[in-house]
Please model this.
Amino acid sequence: MQFMKSLNFTTIIAEEKSIRKASERLAITPSALNRRLLAIEEELRCPLFERMASGVRLNTAGELFLH
Model:
């Protein structure tokens, strides 16, 4: 079931293009969502998003993870 949560969090972050907006949608704090994302990336041993000042964007690894 943990995989489904990880997939759901990643999908919503990708849709919102923002950890803050995704956290509002998921009703959790941005820092908690960021920690979960970092844990997912650590488990996969690669980043899934490019972090920019304007938000986040899926990178190639993130696109592969979601597909």
Notes: Strands lie at 49-52, 55-58.
